[in-house]
């Protein structure tokens, strides 16, 4: 008989390592490490760009910055998640709860940031005359802070039992298990998925309709469009482009998150095998790596900022005043 391999051979209560070919384990480690480092590096470029260059200090970019911060932490979180590839958790029960804490907080804050981005684009496109009055830098910063605080508060409420005694639900040493009741899962599912996704889709449908009408007006050399009855406003091409770009970000977000949330309340053992479940989780995390790539594809300022940062021109005096738009 093949000898059973334990996570902690010196302990009789240790978990048993699942059997997996060494080549598969090495390949998974390499892929996850690459995605983790790429995610952290790309989002760090976004964080530095928006934080450093004064021209990028706008309400919309403040929301993008908050989203980049949550995506940046996802990159580091993947390094810890890779420990579970061989089925063992080696760094203790407290770190297990802490990693779950970071996971849920950054995930829920990302959902909140996506909702705020949708609201921002809705006001910018559908009510441009009042945008500068309603959406100010201070108000956006307050909303971002509330988003992160609410994520932390909800985590504490949902995981209070796990925080009291970390590891109490582990069946063996080397396991990382967090227990959430079905009622709490249902409440969280509606608060953090159904409600925000509904708001996002409804707002972006409205934004899409208005953006299309503005694009047609601009192609017809019409400089004004009617918004809210008889009010006339100037069509802003940059706002429409920003709405389209962030629309792609939101669309990719929904595509990446839907499979994970759709099975979160279901019996995953009956729906998925280990491989398909891994793909769903990887897609869930890979969204954090895609966002900066979307910015690089649609935003010239991001490509220019990246060049300034990589060539270390950012270290020069007065680089924050560089014209990158």
TrEMBL record:
Identify the PROSITE patterns for this entry.
G_PROTEIN_RECEP_F1_1 (PS00237), G_PROTEIN_RECEP_F1_2 (PS50262)
Q: Cite the GO molecular-function annotations of the record.
A: trace-amine receptor activity
The UniProt transmembrane annotation reads: 26-50, 62-83, 89-111, 140-159, 189-212, 246-266, 278-298
Membrane topology type: Multi-pass membrane protein
The superkingdom listed in its UniProt entry is: Eukaryota
Kindly report the protein's main subcellular placement as a broad class: membrane
One short Pfam name that applies is: 7tm_1
* Cellular component terms per the entry's GO annotation: plasma membrane
Q: Where in the cell is it found?
A: Cell membrane
List UniProt keywords, sorted A-Z: Cell membrane, G-protein coupled receptor, Membrane, Receptor, Transducer, Transmembrane, Transmembrane helix
UniProt keyword annotation of Transit peptide present: no
Which residue numbers delimit the G-protein coupled receptors family 1 profile domain? 42-295
Family per similarity comment: Belongs to the G-protein coupled receptor 1 family.
Q: What name appears for this protein in its UniProt entry?
A: Trace amine-associated receptor 8a-like
Q: Which organism is it from?
A: Mastacembelus armatus (zig-zag eel)
């Amino acid at each position: 008989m093949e000898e059973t391999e334990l996570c902690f051979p010196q302990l009789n209560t240790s978990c048993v390592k699942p059997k997996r070919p060494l080549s598969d384990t090495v390949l998974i480690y390499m892929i996850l490490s690459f995605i983790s480092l790429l995610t952290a590096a790309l989002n760090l470029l976004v964080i530095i760009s928006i934080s450093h260059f004064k021209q990028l200090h706008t309400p919309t970019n403040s929301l993008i910055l908050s989203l980049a911060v949550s995506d940046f932490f996802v990159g580091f979180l993947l390094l810890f998640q890779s420990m579970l590839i061989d089925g063992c958790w080696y760094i203790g029960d407290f770190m297990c709860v802490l990693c779950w804490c970071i996971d849920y907080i950054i995930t829920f804050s990302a959902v909140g940031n996506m909702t705020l981005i949708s609201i921002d684009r809705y006001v910018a496109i559908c009510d441009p005359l009042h945008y500068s009055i309603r959406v100010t830098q201070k108000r956006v910063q307050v909303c971002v802070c509330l988003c992160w605080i609410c994520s932390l508060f909800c985590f504490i409420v949902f995981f209070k039992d796990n925080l009291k005694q970390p590891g109490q639900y582990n069946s063996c040493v080397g396991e990382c298990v967090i227990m959430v009741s079905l009622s709490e899962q249902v409440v969280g599912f509606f608060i953090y998925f159904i409600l925000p996704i509904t708001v996002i889709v409804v707002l972006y449908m409205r934004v899409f309709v208005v953006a299309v009408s503005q694009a047609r007006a601009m192609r017809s050399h019409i400089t004004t469009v009617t918004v809210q009855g008889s009010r006339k406003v100037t069509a802003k091409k940059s706002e429409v482009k920003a709405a389209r770009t962030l629309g792609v970000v939101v669309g990719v977000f929904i595509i990446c998150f839907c499979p994970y949330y759709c099975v979160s309340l279901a019996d995953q053992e009956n729906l998925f095998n280990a491989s398909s479940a891994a793909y769903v989780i990887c897609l869930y995390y890979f969204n954090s790596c895609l966002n900066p790539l979307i910015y690089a594809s649609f935003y010239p300022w991001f490509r220019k900022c990246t060049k300034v940062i990589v060539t270390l021109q950012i270290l020069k005096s007065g680089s924050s005043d560089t014209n990158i738009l």
